[in-house]
């Protein structure tokens, strides 16, 4: 069902029956899995110039209103729904650079408008994963998969999708606070990391507090690591994006030293690793 065309080209969340809220609780509908699979198919055939369906999903904020609660609710008891939701989230959070190519001069104005709306969608995605429950759902599901080694081919593919989602969220742009006062060129240079990374730091803190650092090391030690080693490298690049090379080297040294010294908590996980200089 083409939910966008059924409403005359205007986005409508009512035409995508994924679930509903009742007494502040989200309930997944019986049609949820079919709807998610249909949305994935529609995104795969979306117009590569206008990205109308992708922008429509951003307009109705399906990520925060539906997909985030579905992700949190489904990861324990509805694995098929959870996996399809992750697949859809990976598609929705695709970096802009992979979606928008160079246009002819007469197309640049429209292309800028499309890029603006796509960036708004990624802003919302970044904000959605500030929720500890959203990152925990991903981390816990990866842990469950790694307990079943060796993994089947569909499981290795899905594990890599989970990592791709984390990579996309870390790579997504961060909305700058509207109330932030303008900075001088000196102050802007001095505070470039703090200005850029407030949400980024919070997401990384949440991930590493939930054992993401140890999880990455376990995955790199896995016999099937070739299936996701490239994605892990991309995650590391996203974590240290725009940081001076000497800072990266220093922080990596601190991270490995602290991982050898910090005791495990009650759940057997390492505590959060500071990643900001």
Could you characterize the architecture of this molecule?
By secondary structure, the protein is mainly α. The protein has a domain at 3-174 and 194-207. It is 61% helix and 3% strand. It contains 14 helices and two strands. The protein has a two-stranded antiparallel sheet. α8 runs parallel beside α13 (229-239). The protein is globular and about 50 Å long. Mean pLDDT is 81; it is low at 178-196 and 264-277.
Uncertain residue segments: 178-196, 264-277
Number of helices: 14
What topology, given as strand order, has the largest sheet? 1-2
Q: For the terminal residues, how far apart are their CA atoms?
A: 49 Å
What percentage of residues falls in helices of 4 or more residues? 55-70%
Write down the overall mean pLDDT.
Answer: 81
Order of helices and strands: HEEHHHHHHHHHHHHH
What is the overall silhouette? globular
From the alpha-carbon coordinates, what is the Rg to the nearest angstrom?
Answer: 20 Å
Kindly state the number of beta strands. Answer: 2
- Binned strand content: under 5%
Biggest sheet character: 2 strands, antiparallel
Class derived from helix and strand content: mainly alpha
Structural topology:
Blueprint: H1 3-6, E1 19-22, E2 25-28, H2 32-44, H3 52-59, H4 62-77, H5 79-92, H6 108-128, H7 132-146, H8 153-171, H9 185-190, H10 192-196, H11 198-209, H12 212-220, H13 229-239, H14 245-261
Antiparallel strand pairs: 1-2
Helix pairs in contact: 2-5, 3-6, 4-5, 4-7, 5-8, 7-8, 8-13
Keywords: Nucleus
Subcellular location: Nucleus
GO cellular component, one term: replication fork protection complex
């Amino acid at each position: 069902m083409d939910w966008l065309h059924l409403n005359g080209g205007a986005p409508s969340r009512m035409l995508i029956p994924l679930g509903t809220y009742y007494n502040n609780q989200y309930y997944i509908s019986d049609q949820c899995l079919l709807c998610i699979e249909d949305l994935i198919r529609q995104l795969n055939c979306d117009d590569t110039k206008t990205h109308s369906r992708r922008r429509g999903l951003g307009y109705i904020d399906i990520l925060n209103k539906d997909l985030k609660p579905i992700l949190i609710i489904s990861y324990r008891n509805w694995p098929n729904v959870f996996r399809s939701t992750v697949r859809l989230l990976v598609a929705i959070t695709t970096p802009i650079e992979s979606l928008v190519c160079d246009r002819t001069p007469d197309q640049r104005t429209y292309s800028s408008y499309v890029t603006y709306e796509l960036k708004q969608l990624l802003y919302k995605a970044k904000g959605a994963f500030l929720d500890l429950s959203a990152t925990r759902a991903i981390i816990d599901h990866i842990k469950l998969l790694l307990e079943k080694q060796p993994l089947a081919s569909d499981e290795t593919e899905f594990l890599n999708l989970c990592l791709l989602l984390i990579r996309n969220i870390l790579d997504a742009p961060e909305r700058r606070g509207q109330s932030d006062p303008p900075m001088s060129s000196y102050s802007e240079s001095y505070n470039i990391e703090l200005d850029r990374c407030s949400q980024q730091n919070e997401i990384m803190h949440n991930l590493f507090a939930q054992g993401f650092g140890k999880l990455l090391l376990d995955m790199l030690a896995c016999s099937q690591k070739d299936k996701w080693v490239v994605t892990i490298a991309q995650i590391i690049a996203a974590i240290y994006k725009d940081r001076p090379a000497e800072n990266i080297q220093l922080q990596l040294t601190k991270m490995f030293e602290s991982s050898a010294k910090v005791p495990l908590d009650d759940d057997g996980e390492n505590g959060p690793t500071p990643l900001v200089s």
